[in-house]
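Supplementary Methods, section 5.1.

A reviewer requested that the exact input to the structure prediction be made available. We therefore reproduce it here, unchanged from the version used in the analyses.
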Amino acid sequence: MILDHRRRYSELPPSPSALVSSRASSGDPEISTNGSEDEHDVSNNSVSESIPWYLQVQTPRQDPKSLSERQRLPNLPADPPPLLQPMLQHISVDLGLDDLSMLDLRDLDPPPALGANLMMIIGTARSEKHLHVSADRFCRWLRTAHRLTPYADGLLGRGELKLKLKRKNRRARMLNTAGVSDGKNTDDGIRTGWVCVNIGVIEDGLATRQKEVNPNDDDYVGFGGEISGVKVVVQMLTEEKREELDLETLWNQALARYTRRRDRIAKGQVENAVPSGHLEPLPGFNDSPPSLALAP
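The structure derived from this sequence is encoded token-by-token as follows.
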């Protein structure tokens, strides 16, 4: 009876998994590669199915730029201050910031919160350390070479950075001793990702776009005074922070809105203007002169 069952079991056709395993062990390359690919696809599908669709992040595929494209200097605007060209050269060559862009906001009305006659330079740092070192060296270069007093918002000084790193390492050792894992998303005050260097006003009459305003005008709103010089601001960001903020799109949209509004106002003024050589009659008077009655 036992032999009969063994004979019947041996006469059954082999299962597909047994065939694949036997062919793979025999050295069939097609079966071995397809089997590994199937297992990889199954593992990827299981991982993607375990994550909800609204948490799945699809990273966009962008072609990396060449070194010459990343270090290309932007074109200078009309009537630039004399310091602008050597400043761009120093930022690109000496500091190593990539993808420099120039925003000319001198014509923007109302002016930005940073000030009127504003020019903005945006550059990308390669790391957090490179960001703070570049901002510190840039401020020192402005003070020593050009006698300017820049203010860097978001810059961690050398002593402050060492103190924060020391506190961070001490906290990590205490957490490891207690057996508690520190969260990766905690804000330690070191990873700023953005330093705004406000250089101030560079005195130059040719680059000034806004002139003196007469407070006695009927259309005037605000405070009068003469604005001389150009205010330059350098925005230094890491690559992730620059993609997140997208300052170029923000300011370009503001310039486009201002241009459309200015063109619309100019068009309305042209349509409502009185043609030259034509005077409208005053109310109560006729176009023809009054007839004089002759006395008898």
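The first helix runs from residue 2 to 11. These observations are discussed further in the main text.
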